[in-house]
Amino acid sequence: MKGTLRLVSIGGGLVLWHALAVWVIDDSVLLVSPLVVVAKGYEMLFVTADLYPHLFASWWIFFYGMILAALVGVPVGFLMALSPLVRDYMAPWMTALYTTPRIAFAPVILLWFGIDIGSKIIIVFLGCVFPILINSFYGMRVVSREFVEVGRSFRLSEGRLFVKILLPASVPFILAGLRLAVGRGLTGVAIAEWFGATEGLGHLIFFAGQTLNMPILFVGVAVFGILGILGFQILKIIEDLATPWKKGLEAN
Amino acid sequence: MQQRGLRRGLLSILGGLILWEVLTRLLLENELLIPPPTSVARSLWKLSFAGELNRHLYATLFEFTCGFSTACAVGIFLGYLMGRYPWFDELMDPWIATLYSIPVIAFVPLIIIWFGIGLFSKIVVVFKITAVAIMLNTAAGIKNIDPVWLELSRSMRLSPWETTAKIRLPAALPYIITGMRLGVGRALLGVIVAELMAANEGLGYLLRDASETWDSPKLFVTVVLLAAMGMGSFSLIKKGEQRLAPWRESAEW
């Protein structure tokens, strides 16, 4: 029952979309049928294979941006959680950077770093770093007092306490932060590639938009959607693997 | 404790600004790359006097408010239906989930083709982004309602309408606010992107204009204004969240 309604919804939506595109609008500049989109996607993947350069270009920007964000976000988040001094001095700048729409920084970053891959990575980095940082911060803050007290009563040194208790306890939070960062990172990729890029998925979408090429535009949007869902699911699996105790807790 | 944090925060901002000013004046001396804060302030003053700034600011605020308020109304309504009726939830869910997982930016070219380059397309961008976030959260709030409250409403013999108005919606309110908070940031991003791509007014347009004419002070003015808008809307919603759901440890950022 549950599955059927879902299928009906997807099927019905697609049929509606097709009907709207073919009989109501009937203008390939405004809307194309999902069949055309699938055909175009198939062609770009397996016939002409011209989707791959864009995919790889975007992938590397995304990958480096995420790695950089994790390398910076996790330690800074920990530092802010463990030291009130660092926290108080950093907080206003973090708030400002976090709440400003990221696109505002894009022209500034381009001005400083040029239109190389470096500035694109930084734009992705800016998007990803905050969810990671904030989650690391909270992970470290909400470690159960009992765990810390157990560590204290075993006379763990500060360093051992960190490695044995604080770090493992905050792993689920860091992974959740990474998962949240995927979506923001993809948005970052799109923003970055829109400014002065010659390839990449973002470039593909904007170019298709400007040349009113609907099939390619929809393929680009769909690829972004698929990547978003895929990244989210993969990190979810990693999360379950890395924190097996959480699953037991949920089952209880 | 709170006071000390505030004092340090102010100190940090002030120190940062002074450092920025000194470094740019002494070391870089290149207004194009990083203008010192004072010339940003001067540019802000000049632009706001010319009335140019107000026009752009109003345009962006107008687009944002229109889109956001319609999104709240529609999002809460549909979210309520999704929370109440499982069949409706299943009908909507695949499409909502897909819409939610595609980056905002990817939709902007499409929306501009469909709705033109005027105010309306930006309102649609804000609407799309916010409505989805609010819908998902409202549905979760309605679903997670404590059954005890529903029993209470039954023993008080509340009519279905009263149950909705007095029990279900208030119970979902914290969730709805969270949806709004999630929507605000993304919607602001969306509207700026849409303005950057195709518009003749608004802060996004100003951003593009400034970066294309290499007017760095103006560029930084826009960045500062956008930061102010982001922080303002964020802290407003956070205040609302703290009032409506004080039991939740709300995000510090």
Task: Pick out its properties.
heterodimer; A: 252 residues; mainly alpha; MetI-like fold; globular; B: 253 residues; 2 domains; 10 helices
Please characterize this protein's 3D structure.
The complex is a heterodimer of chains A (about 250) and B (about 250). Chain A has helices spanning about 1-25, 35-45, 50-80, 85-100, 105-115, 115-140, 145-155, 160-195, 200-210, 215-240, 245-250. Chain A has a single domain, classed as MetI-like fold. Helix content of chain A is about 85%, strand content about 0%. Chain A is mainly α and about 250 residues long. With about 250 residues, chain B is mainly alpha-helical. Chain B folds into 2 domains: about 1-30; about 35-245, Orthogonal Bundle (MetI-like fold). Helix content of chain B is about 85%, strand content about 0%. Chain B has 10 helices and no strands. Chain B has helices at about 1-30, 35-50, 50-85, 85-100, 105-115, 120-145, 145-155, 160-195, 205-210, 215-245. The longest helix of chain B has about 40 residues, at about 160-195. The mean pLDDT of chain B is about 85. The interface between A and B is large, with 58 and 57 residues.
The gist of it:
Chain A is built from eleven helices and no strands. Chain A has 252 residues and is an all-alpha fold. Chain A has a single domain, classed as MetI-like fold.
Radius of gyration of chain A: 23 Å
In percent, how helical is the residue content of chain B? over 70%
Give the end-to-end Cα distance of chain B, rounded to a whole number of Å. Answer: 18 Å
List how many beta strands of chain A DSSP finds. Answer: 0
N→C terminal distance of chain A? 27 Å
CATH class of the largest domain in chain B: Mainly Alpha
Mean pLDDT score of chain A, rounded? 84
**CATH level-four homologous superfamily name of chain A:** MetI-like
- Spans of chain B of 5+ residues with little confidence (pLDDT < 50)? none
Count, helices of chain B: 10
Question: What percent of residues of chain B are in strands?
Answer: under 5%
CATH topology of chain A: MetI-like fold
CATH architecture of chain A: Orthogonal Bundle
Total domain modules of chain B: 2
Number of helices of chain A: 11
Biggest beta sheet attributes of chain B: none
H/E element order of chain B:
HHHHHHHHHH
CATH architecture of the largest domain in chain B: Orthogonal Bundle
Classify the beta-strand content of chain A into a percent band: under 5%
Q: Flag low-confidence runs of chain A.
A: none
- The assigned structural class of chain B equals mainly alpha
